[in-house]
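Dear Dr. L.,

I hope this message finds you well. Following up on our conversation about the binding site, I have prepared a predicted three-dimensional model of the protein together with NAI. For your records, I am including the exact sequence and ligand specification that went into the calculation, followed by the structure tokens. Please feel free to forward this to your student if that is useful.
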Amino acid sequence: MIGGGYVGLVSAACFAEFGMHVSVVETNAERLAALREGRIPIYEPGLDTLVVSNSQAGRLVFGDDIASAVVGAEAVFIAVGTPPRNGDGAADLQYVHAAARQIAQALTGYAVIVTKSTVPVGSSRRIAEIIREARPDLDFDVASNPEFLREGSAIDDFMRPDRVIIGLDEAGKNGTARAENVMRRVYRPLAQSAAELVFTGLETAELTKYASNSFLAMKISFINEMADLCEKLGANVEGLARGMGLDTRIGQRFLNPGPGYGGSCFPKDTLALSRIAQESQSGCRLVETTVQVNEARKAAMAGRIIAACGGAVNGRTVAVLGLTFKPETDDMRESASIPILHRLAEAGAVLRAYDPVGMEAAKPLLPAQTIYCADAMDAAQGADVLVVLTEWNIFRALSPESLAQQMRAKVVVDLRNIFDPDAMRAAGFVYQSVGRP
Ligand code: NAI
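The resulting structure of the complex is given below.
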């Protein structure tokens, strides 16, 4: 497993739990040192136990030497980052290509080189070219195996996925039988789950990942726009979402309005798909619009908070509950909290923030003057407005009366609809949520 980040580490730990021998290659010295000591550099529920037990059983090892890691490997997974390239939003493939070159130098026998990173269409063929150029003698196949796990429930998602997509080179001169056999064996432990193994060509597998993430991003943007409309028309987005979602063609999930999607995948993958479509002279206007709608939404949310304070936050104290892009993760990448807090800071607000696990990761990204608090009640101390940005479960049980006692003014802007409007009003709050009367 090349790369020991969210995807690499979770995949490696789960494969090891299935009884396979997995070597993780990680070049970040700090991350590697932590992993070797059994410390998990990211927050993901259940991952620490899985890593420690499989390391102790000798099935999961960590190192920085790719040559020793790939000895005898039948499958080598690439799970390095593919961040957006500065300037045009296309996926930056420098880490993937570097990994391919390193793998080429290190392999001593047949292996399937599997791309787990999210990569543009054509990347697996490019990886094959890179390896062939470096090692014309080498016997290998490439496969595209995009990962669909969600941070926060990554282990369960990996072990009980809805589907596993495996793209193979259908035009390969040796056919795909050998590579397919390796991939079937790798995923055989999932046979008891409902997971369907979908074999496709390389291009289809690569595009399926971007299409899936873009569709989900579009679904979120859709319900966000419906929430705005509900507010204008006196409708309730919760009833609307339930009414829509019970149609199995639509489905209940991903119909919760909020401050705009963030995270390490949706923003970058929607941008990358837009870019792929442009380069192919093919329209992808729905996805391009989704990107624009989401950017505009994040900006609008700061405006909503300022409006709730009567049009100005200069010198006012804003309590912020939740900073990560979603609960059960410490990932701050592209979190809506980043533009919102910067906008509030520029408008002169005093920011008192609390997040159960994301505060360390948040510090370099948020305004320098942000005050990090011990808990939610501490954040609410003396606040003129309390804003909910991430729906961590521990915020749901906060007592409105106790919050009211802590605050200077009783205003709540709940951008995740976690509180009961009637209970908040009964406690004397001016309470605003998203898409609810
Ligand atoms: P990450 O940034 O957490 O991890 C990547 C790791 O690879 C880093 O620890 C880095 O030091 C290491 N690395 C880079 N080059 C290396 C090399 N040549 N040799 C060894 N290690 C190397 O990234 P994350 O979030 O795990 O994402 C990886 C890929 O998976 C991306 O393409 C992403 O789009 C995709 N993905 C991410 C999901 C997520 O929820 N984070 C879900 C599904 C796909």
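In brief: The pocket of NAI is lined by residues 2-8, 25-28, 31, 79-82, 95, 98-99, 102, 117-118, 147, 149, 151, 264-265 (CB under 6 Å).

With kind regards,
A. P.
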